[in-house]
Design goal:
It contains four helices and seven strands. With 165 residues, it is of the alpha+beta class. It has two domains: 73 residues, no CATH class; 57 residues, SH3 type barrels. A hairpin with a 5-residue loop joins β2 and β3. The radius of gyration is 32 Å and the shape is flat.
């Protein structure tokens, strides 16, 4: 047992020595900090609004130049997706299910509720409820929402054929 503890201690000492050696050979890890702080100070100064003019002669001067765009390394972070996907706008209305004379609707605003025929949820108005389909009005357009990819039941939109999948 004593030999095992000595072996573990020796391994940890070797790992610590290797870490210290690599830190010493790489140089100062904060060497680029001054450049980064300088660019951040320049961005902050450019984004601050100019002070209010003291006289009308000062108002005749042209406005300062727009702030410079952020460095590429900041836009790279945004486009990499490391912080999650960028918002793409609200999702379309969806039919989640049917419960008797009610449809379970998810509105683009994120609300989910039971809605009867003629009822409204957010910007979605339920016009008619079918077997596995619901006819809704959203943003002035009439849409047919269905579950099971529209299989079964008759279409609620006039002139549309039933799917035979």
């Amino acid at each position: 047992m004593n030999y095992i503890l000595k072996g573990i201690t020796l391994a940890l000492a070797v790992i610590c020595a290797l870490q210290a050696y690599s830190a010493f050979m790489e140089g100062d890890p904060l060497s680029g900090l001054e450049d980064h702080l300088g660019s951040m100070a320049a961005l902050r100064a450019a984004s601050e609004p100019p002070p209010a003019p003291a006289s009308s002669a000062a108002a005749a001067t042209p406005p300062s130049a727009p702030a410079p765009p952020p460095p590429d390394r900041y836009t790279t972070i945004e486009s990499s997706g490391i912080l999650g996907a960028l918002p793409q706008g609200p999702p379309p209305p969806a039919l989640l299910g049917l419960a008797g004379a009610y449809a379970i609707i998810r509105a683009p605003e994120g609300q989910t509720d039971l809605v009867a025929e003629g009822g409204t949820l957010g910007t979605v108005k339920v016009l008619k409820i079918g077997i596995n389909r619901v006819l809704v009005e959203h943003k002035g357009k009439v849409e047919e929402l269905s579950i099971f990819e529209g299989m079964g039941g008759e279409p609620l939109v006039p002139g549309k054929e039933a799917s035979t999948r």
